[in-house]
Amino acid sequence: MALSRLSLRSNPFLKPSTTSIRRHVSTDTTPITIETAVPFESHLCDAPSRSVVTSSSEILSFFRDMARMRRTEIAADSLYKAKMIRGFCHLYDGQEALAVGMEAAITKKDAIITSYRDHCTFLGRGGELVEAFSELMGRKRGCSNGKGGSMHFYKKDACFYGGHGIVGAQIPLGCGLAFAQKYSKEEFVTFALYGDGAANQGQLFEALNIAALWDLPAILVCENNHYGMGTATWRSAKSPAYFKRGDYVPGLKVDGMDALAVKQACKFAKEHALKNGPIVLEMDTYRYHGHSMSDPGSTYRTRDEVSGVRQVRDPIERVRKLLLSYDIATEKELKDMEKEVRKEVDDAVAQAKESPVPEPSELFTNMYVKDCGVESFGADRKELKVTLT
Amino acid sequence: MSAIIHGAGAATALSTFNFKTLVAPCRTNIPGRSKRCIVAAGSDDDASKSFGSSILTVRHSQKLIANAVATKADMSATTGTGHELLLFEALQEGLEEEMDRDPHVCVMGEDVGHYGGSYKVTKGLADKFGDLRVLDTPICENAFTGMGIGAAMTGLRPVIEGMNMGFLLLAFNQISNNCGMLHYTSGGQFTIPVVIRGPGGVGRQLGAEHSQRLESYFQSIPGIQMVACSTPYNAKGLMKAAIRSENPVILFEHVLLYNLKEKIPDEEYICNLEEAEMVRPGEHITILTYSRMRYHVMQAAKTLVNKGYDPEVIDIRSLKPFDLYTIGNSVKKTHRVLIVEECMRTGGIGASLTAAINENFHDYLDAPVMCLSSQDVPTPYAGTLEEWTVVQPAQIVTAVEQLCQ
């Protein structure tokens, strides 16, 4: 299958290690060092090195995972327009590098908690596509049995704590998770993700104060996509340097569209948090869709801006260029991979469409733990009756 | 616990009223059972974290005493020596025993550690268990309540103290959306075994903002349980039960009841979270009350007994869900109900209870349910005015006389 290729793509900011490259097999794990395009900016700490150690299999997995996430969000978009997904649907396309980069730096025992823009984070934590789509469509097969919806994805066995609708409320929860990790004396950390809009919430500073005071292994990650729904950061924040807002807590600003930079930063942050307590990461990222499906995303920013970012900074294109220039894969192979991913997603959607809706009795389950065998009536006394066990 | 069964009629049961279909908080479904307090056999290795299981053996049997005071003397008689302590000490004892028993239990709140707690409920615990288990938080109710809930998602069992229940309004979002709902929206993946406790109610001229009754605000939140303690005995029992429960429980204490003295058993015991307490059995009228109003009711009961009435006083204890079993039995017996509460008239616990009783026991009532509540005003500072915002014993006597005509 592999033909060794001797041509190199020239790329201004990439420096391949040798001039004549044999084809890297996709499962190759020999380390490659790549330098990030944008330097880190730091606050009260030393920035990590710009050289990221990775491997071809890792970069290939980035590509595949990001392609899957991108296709998931696009599929969710069409499902929403077809009215199969209702309510609120917040899409993550454009920000995929954050999810994959973070996963590459941590283990499944480190906790992640995020806001309502959680589909891709869920997938990154090992969530299945079928579970995601079923939950979006309110089916029993969903990760929260169809009772949570788009904003309430959870995966306990992968330490993914959701999925929260109220802006900023997940940050104290995240510090609580970090507290529990410290309490149990396990060497794991918690990543609490929030947006530039939530960065103005008081509870963030409250939680940060406690985390710094008690030396909790909490990493607060601001996904700065520059718009809090319709309000740009320059209109909502006096100090848009979110990584500096921790004041006494160190911070790092990262190019959030570069999966390798994200990986490096998260690795650095994990080490820091285990030794020195909390740290704030600001990920400079961008979302192509509007805030949610009800927001066209064009009233507060120009289409040129969106397409400009898509052309210059798109995370998947960046990784594609890496793969091509390092000769880890050919164009055709990448296209095939994308086709496979598309098929995967389409299959999952079809499967989710077939899966059943929750039983009426599910209305009353999981209200309390061990409800002690009591009968409970619903709105219609005769119809919805369940014994809570 | 379960939702209140509304319209238990559903056209079926009223004539053949079967109490077994009502909310049955106690495992033993004995009609007219009188066992109230469940004494734990004291085994610490009990893996069962869920309080609702019937592993606990019932030891206390209640003798009915026709005097107008709580059956304190009775308890110490059956269980031997017992020891006397104040309500806040009882809470502390319960908390300490649970922290000894389970290393997952921790306490967080303002000034709970080194200071010993503003009402001394956590006194001495920081010295015994260390700073990691008794945590002094900065003043940020929203954040530390959220932190407690986040920690609970992983399996810890925090006891979150609000220095005054009124301050927990700042944490309402965390309590409502995260504490109450996470078990449901995660499809059962996460349990939130927190206890949120603190003193509330009208004190002695504390002013409007420090005299709030939050049980009325929290009662609609799905997924939580609410209990109110009123004696040292049930304070300790409810504290222990709340900590052991897998569900989030809000334990309402009252600022003025912390110095109540009572003799409580030496051996370990727990009170059922969903059960009401029969304070004084009677025949003529059922008086439902909780927390501090219990004492106003008992004071009024003395006067009523002298006047020849025989009120049945029930301390409902469980504010969510209501113990409709005990209440129903009582209504069937007396046919008249008076609710005496400290909540506001509008939207208080009494309002919900009135609705529940009317829906479920309408045919058993000889008179409309009367509810005495506090006035719908912010609690004034002036002593005389404050006295008139809450229900006084004289008003209770008048109401009973009116109902029993």
Automatic annotation (TrEMBL), chain A:
Q: Where does this protein have coiled-coil stretches?
A: none
**Which cofactors, by name?**
thiamine diphosphate
| Domain named Dehydrogenase E1 component: residues | 64-360
Reaction catalysed by this enzyme? N(6)-[(R)-lipoyl]-L-lysyl-[protein] + pyruvate + H(+) = N(6)-[(R)-S(8)-acetyldihydrolipoyl]-L-lysyl-[protein] + CO2
User: According to the UniProt record, what class of enzyme is this?
Assistant: oxidoreductase
- InterPro entries per record: DH_E1 (IPR001017), PDH_E1_Alpha_Subunit (IPR050642), Pyrv_DH_E1_asu_subgrp-y (IPR017597), THDP-binding (IPR029061)
Q: Which NCBIfam families match?
A: PDH_E1_alph_y (TIGR03182)
Described purpose of this protein according to its UniProt entry: The pyruvate dehydrogenase complex catalyzes the overall conversion of pyruvate to acetyl-CoA and CO(2). It contains multiple copies of three enzymatic components: pyruvate dehydrogenase (E1), dihydrolipoamide acetyltransferase (E2) and lipoamide dehydrogenase (E3).
Q: Quaternary structure per UniProt?
A: Tetramer of 2 alpha and 2 beta subunits.
Q: What is this protein called?
A: Pyruvate dehydrogenase E1 component subunit alpha
Q: Which organism is it from?
A: Raphanus sativus (Radish)
TrEMBL record, chain B:
Asked if Transmembrane is a keyword of the record, the answer is: no
Provide any one GO MF term from the record.
Answer: metal ion binding
Q: Cross-referenced CDD domains, in alphabetical order?
A: TPP_PYR_E1-PDHc-beta_like
* Annotated localization: Plastid, Chloroplast
One cellular component term from this protein's GO annotations in UniProt? chloroplast
Which cofactor does the UniProt annotation name? thiamine diphosphate
A Pfam family cross-referenced in the UniProt record is Transket_pyr
In this protein, which residues make up the domain named Transketolase-like pyrimidine-binding?
85-260
Question: Major place of localization?
Answer: plastid
Q: Which PANTHER family match?
A: PYRUVATE DEHYDROGENASE E1 COMPONENT BETA SUBUNIT, PYRUVATE DEHYDROGENASE E1 COMPONENT SUBUNIT BETA
| Quaternary structure note | Tetramer of 2 alpha and 2 beta subunits.
The protein's role, per its UniProt record:
The pyruvate dehydrogenase complex catalyzes the overall conversion of pyruvate to acetyl-CoA and CO(2). It contains multiple copies of three enzymatic components: pyruvate dehydrogenase (E1), dihydrolipoamide acetyltransferase (E2) and lipoamide dehydrogenase (E3).
Which protein, by its recorded name, is this? pyruvate dehydrogenase (acetyl-transferring)
- Natural source organism: Raphanus sativus
Task: Give the gene symbol.
Answer: LOC108814335
